[in-house]
Automatic annotation (TrEMBL):
SMART domains for this protein: AlaDh_PNT_C, AlaDh_PNT_N
Name the UniProt record assigns to this protein: Alanine dehydrogenase
Residues covered by the Alanine dehydrogenase/pyridine nucleotide transhydrogenase N-terminal domain: 4-137
Enzyme Commission designation: 1.4.1.1
Key words of the record: NAD, Nucleotide-binding, Oxidoreductase
Originating gene: ald
Residues binding substrate: R15, K75
Taxonomic lineage from the root: Bacteria, Pseudomonadati, Bacteroidota, Cytophagia, Cytophagales
Length: 375
């Protein structure tokens, strides 16, 4: 198969979809890899690194899309890429369709095969291609939140871990999944007093067992959230419903009961956000303020640490990319249910229910679609 890796063009997105090591592994299986010039420089990989691994360098993004049968990316295509995508072309990347109606309709119109990292799901309901970036984003959420708590950045002026004789900051984490767990561990490690909320009692029991003494667990409901946000300095939104919009756990009216300088970090913003007042921002302009509350809503947080993120992502995506290249998308998805769950939009049809529900679109069951496609 002919595989293309374009340079990411989203604002301040420095990750790349394949490392040179990944290229070498794909080449061992007899496939051809085309990299756009300078695609890996933001992550610390030169064109020479890629050519040494067996890739061919193409000068433009147009050339990559025109040549490749499968495009491997990090972030969803943006408007200037839409018309480059060909009918039947396989795109393997993060899409987050439930947060962008424009993108959804664009991919339907292009009749491409859109296989989303974020909905590839194993039998145990884990999300193997979302986990690495969730780990990065969860840890970064505390790093960024601590920074924006500083007074010159309009935060409360509180040190996350405090000092002897002065109490630490209070951190509230909404969601006890991968992002929330990593955020709580980082905040606790810095000495903050942490409360982590989830709707699953079984998950709270697990977290209570593994977390250090400065982490409390609490059932997530509106009453508890309203009580905790009154005294929290840093609030992390870490809620995920795979392939669907995140629910708004913090609503517009709740800002009024927060203290001035409270910092909100909505890690779920690329799925619509779990904080009603959040809207996607960029690393260039990461924050905005509403009612004296600082909002940090960068939709590609791991893009700020591209070396770590690129290695972590390729470690997870490469085995699946090789399956797709070896077998073709249809056979690979029929033989591997993990990949099957990643199909979101296929040749003009929405085959993932969460996406169809988000935008009121007709939905075709993915098993039915593949059965019809093979007749």
């Amino acid at each position: 198969m002919i595989i293309g890796v374009p340079k990411e063009i989203k604002n301040n997105e420095n990750r790349v979809a394949l490392t040179p090591a990944g290229v070498a592994e794909i080449k061992k299986h007899g496939h051809t890899v085309y990299m756009q010039a300078n695609a890996g420089t933001g992550s610390g990989f030169s064109d020479a690194d890629y050519t040494s691994a067996g890739a061919t360098i193409l000068p433009t993004i147009e050339a990559v899309y025109e040549t490749a049968e499968m495009i491997i990316k990090v972030k969803e295509p943006i408007a200037q890429e839409y018309n480059l995508i060909r009918e039947d072309q396989l795109l393997f990347t993060y899409f987050h369709f439930a947060s962008s109606e424009e993108l959804t309709h664009a991919m339907i119109a292009r009749k491409a095969v859109c296989l989303a990292y974020e909905t590839v799901e194993k039998a145990d309901r884990s999300l193997p291609l979302l986990i690495p970036m969730s780990e990065v984003a969860g840890r970064m959420s505390i790093q960024e939140g601590a920074h924006y708590l500083e007074k010159p950045l309009k935060g409360r002026g509180i040190l996350l871990g405090g000092v002897p004789g002065v109490p630490p900051a209070r951190v509230l984490v909404l969601g006890g999944g991968v992002v929330g767990t990593q955020a709580a561990k980082m905040a606790a490690g810095l000495g903050a007093h942490v409360t982590i909320m989830d709707v699953s009692l079984a998950r709270l029991r697990y977290l209570d067992d593994i977390m250090p003494p400065n982490v409390d667990t609490m059932m997530s409901n509106e009453y508890n959230i309203r009580e905790r946000i009154k005294v929290s300095d840093l609030i992390i939104g870490a809620v995920l419903i795979p392939g669907a919009k995140a629910p708004h756990l913090i609503t517009r009216d709740m800002l009024k009961i927060m203290r001035p300088g409270t910092v909100l970090v909505d890690v779920a913003v690329d799925q619509g956000g779990c904080i009603e007042t959040c809207k996607p921002t960029t690393h260039e302009n990461p924050t905005f303020i509403i009612d004296d509350v600082v909002h940090y809503c960068v939709a590609n947080m791991p893009g700020a640490v591209p070396y770590t993120s690129t290695l972590a992502l390729t470690n997870a995506t490469l085995p699946y990319a090789i399956q797709l290249a070896n077998k073709g998308w249809k056979k690979a998805c029929q033989e591997n249910r993990d990949l099957l769950s990643g199909l979101n939009v296929v040749k003009g049809e929405v085959v993932y229910k969460g996406v169809a529900d988000a935008w009121g679109l007709s939905y075709t069951n993915v098993d039915d679609y593949l059965e019809m496609a093979t007749v």
